[in-house]
Amino acid sequence: MALSRPVRLFSLVARWILAPRRGLTVRSPDEPLAVVRIPVALQRQLEQRQSRRLNLPRPVLVRPGRLLVSARRPEFNQPARLTLGRWESAPLASQGWKSRRARRDHFSIERAQQEAPAVQKLSSEGNFADLGLEPRVLHALQEVAPEVVQPTTVQSGTIPQLLRGRHVLCAAETGSGKTLSYLLPLFQRLVGHPSLDSLRIPAPRGLVLVPSRELAQQVRAVAQPLGRSLGLLVRDLEGGHGMRRIRMQLSRQPSADVLVATPGALWKALKSRLISLEQLSFLVLDEADTLLDESFLELVDYILEKSHIANGPADLEDCFNPKAQLVLVGATFPEGVGQLLNKVASPDAVTTITSSKLHCIMPHVKQTFVRLKGADKVAELVHILKHHNRAERTGPSGTVLVFCNSSSTVNWLGYILDDHKIQHLRLQGQMPALMRAGIFQSFQKSSRDILLCTDIASRGLDSTGVELVVNYDFPPTLQDYIHRAGRVGRVGSEVPGTVISFVTHPWDVSLVQKIELAARRRRSLPGLVSSMKEPLPQQPDFDKSD
Ligand code: ADP
Ligand code: MG
Predict the structure, then answer these.
(1) Contact 484, 475 (CB under 8 A)
(2) What secondary structure does DSSP assign to 492-542, as a single string?
(3) To the nearest whole number, what is the mean pLDDT of the chain?
(4) What is the DSSP letter of 2?
(5) What's the confidence (pLDDT) of residue 32?
(6) Atom number of ligand 1 nearest to Cα 462
(7) Which of 243, 247, 332, 427 might form a disulfide with 453, Cβ 3.0–4.6 angstroms?
């Protein structure tokens, strides 16, 4: 349609005046519409503001590549290629978790590698013969554990030092093969030195001290066939059944060359003069940090007093006056353990072996943290357990460990799982000894898929079939977290491990923040010593004589 004359005139004037000054073009009636472009950043900002106003989900920021930390709020994601500097502060996904508004928030430390660090270097590290083990010990190992062909990193480090007669403090991550690290040198030492047999009461030449009955049975189960193959007798000694049982266990003939004992039972036996440690030539404290903590310290102190600990390798040579070589083994060593060690051995005689991954977040285990209200924990647990049972699996499926902080929670939660018809086993320290016996073994043999337990199942127990650890109650300390998480992703595990932790209390949040920061920095957890080489004050008043 033709425009009227004044309108046409106005349009021409406007084009002439406005176009050069403002960079605008005024469309002639025949030209197509001009496209006005808004910068992309501004457009996103506007969209975000609008979506927030409309309460729509916020857009997901896509970051290419694998993640080290993945969070519900993607702005807290950390790519795997990025590591925070030691002093660099980071925005933590768990930062505001002490507030109630953070409920149902969650984040995960992702699996960075498939294999446990302890086996990564297996192929390049030679074999057991290179470590100085004698043919008869190698033959025994091959006979009873044909799957153990090459030593793990910790075995390569520890075995030669022990064969040299050094006292050893071995601090290496959970599931890295520490048991064989001390058992093989122990047997080599015993087969090389004949027993004296001069005492009327049992006098073992090797003693392995462990903090729980379950662990005593486990270590005995590894040691017994090895010993049998070498003509040595291995027995265990555990409490919980009264003095009569202890007497009976020790009166069996012939008496044991190697005893695997819990501190309580051994303490009672020593007090009643049912056993002597005079012939001891090899003493192991397995899970040493637990054995040296307050609950056991008095008992362990007494046992160490009764053992004759060698001053150095030269002291070990005299067969007629046996002295004990000392091995302390553990996956966590809290500050102060060095001083305790110094009570029994001079720092010069002790070799410390620490793995580079000690006290670090395990890189091969996915660890998820969920902030929950206390009242929501049961529903969440039931959901996880039912989902775990139902999940369609292509590979082998594993078992589940659920950790609670007290025996009463284990019992209470057990009744709730019964109501939901979820089959499970329970293990806690207040159970009568008879009921407790054999529970962990039947869990290991997978007669049931789920074990509800307290921390008595978190120390040292081998659980290569466990796929999932749920911290129903968040562990009270970082050491406990390391030990619980260490039940998955062990050397020889057939299933990849996952840990899910429920975070409820403000004090839980403080621990989670330390874990998250250590993971983002790829550093060890704070408050746990990773080196015990510093000179320690001597305590000359400690009496090591019998
Ligand atoms: P830790 O005491 O360090 O927690 P364990 O001694 O209980 O670990 O060993 C964990 C698992 O690794 C066990 O099932 C054990 O049989 C297995 N294992 C130990 N050493 C080796 C090895 N050299 N090769 C393969 N598997 C091993
Ligand atoms: Mg162990």
Answers:
(1) yes
(2) T-SS--EEEEEE-SHHHHHHHHHHHHHHHHT-BPTTB-S---S-----TT-
(3) 82
(4) P
(5) 58
(6) 7
(7) 427
For residue 183, the ligand closest to its alpha carbon is 1
User: DSSP state, 119?
Assistant: H
Which residues lie below 8 Å from residue 84, measured CB to CB, with a gap of 6+? 78, 90, 517, 520, 521
Q: Of how many residues is the chain composed? A: 546
Average pLDDT rounded to a whole number, residues 225-244: 91
What was the pLDDT predicted at 425?
A: 94
For residues 436 and 277, the model is more confident at 277
* Residue 168 near residue 160 (C-beta atoms within 8 A): no
Probe target for ligand 1 pocket from 290, 462, 491, with the most ligand atoms within 8 Å of CB: 491
Q: What is the rounded CA–CA span in Å between residue 299 and residue 268?
A: 9
Closest listed ligand to the CA of 492: 1
Predicted local distance difference test score (pLDDT) of residue 340: 66
In 3D, which of 543, 512, 491, 529 has the Cα closest to residue 102? 512
> Residue 175: CB within 6 Å of ligand 1?
yes
Confidence class of residue 361 from pLDDT cuts 50, 70 and 90?
A: confident
User: How big is the CA angle at 153 (ends 152 and 155), to the nearest 5 degrees?
Assistant: 65
